[in-house]
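In line with agreed milestones, work has continued on tokenised descriptions of protein folds. One protein thus recorded appears below exactly as we store it:

>
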Amino acid sequence: MPAARNDAARHSRMPNLLIFGASGMGKTMIVEKFVRAHPSRFDDATGVQHWPVIVAQIVPSPDEGRFYQRLLSVIGAPAPRRATLGQLETQALRLLQEIAPRMLVIDEVQNLIAGTYREQRRMLNLLRFLGNELRIPLVCLGSHEARDAIGGDAHLNSRFEPLGLPLWRHDADFHGLVGGLLRSLPLRSASELTDSALKRIVDVNGGVTAAIFRMILDLATEAITSGAERITPSAIASHRVVSAASNAAA
């Protein structure tokens, strides 16, 4: 993701990013790591909590009021129960300008498609409005359908650079992923996996990150419980794998 920019770098048309991919590919993990790298801080001089990165989610039945309520809740300022849309918008914009975020991350963008055509248009206009008003980058996350959701507004779509997260394949990048994960495990002996064992890990899990991690963690648990203290090709060959779809949803 782009790093936070200073005020002088802001302009009327900020660069935006759309990250999309299958469920379980690690989109939420990427955002959580980015948020940890840019934590909020309290300004003693002004008494304001500044949030470099704000993450909000589009609810399954999207509408402007619910989105503003979610934004306000995220920054710790829940709206009055009977506030009008205009009041929610005014309060959200005032507080966002006060806490000075550098980036707004919007998750589950594919939920826009769940709304009617009119609701979709209104929500897309809202996203475009927030980007223009706050003059900060927008980062949208979602499934492959998120591309269709953003594509519903030609002006908004032109402002987003798409970044797809492809499924893992049996290649050098996958070997590096598994190697890094194995080194992080509390096993007393080194796990030496054959090429065919690595291929089985990626194949039986459909290349989905969450499913791959779940399988390796399960294998590590079995290795500790049995006293083997290492993951072996034979353990991988005999391991009963939960369906990739179930793992990805976990």
Observations:
- The beta strands are 16-21, 41-43, 48-50, 53-57, 103-107, 138-142, 160-165.
- Confidence is low (pLDDT under 50) at residues 4-10, 244-250.
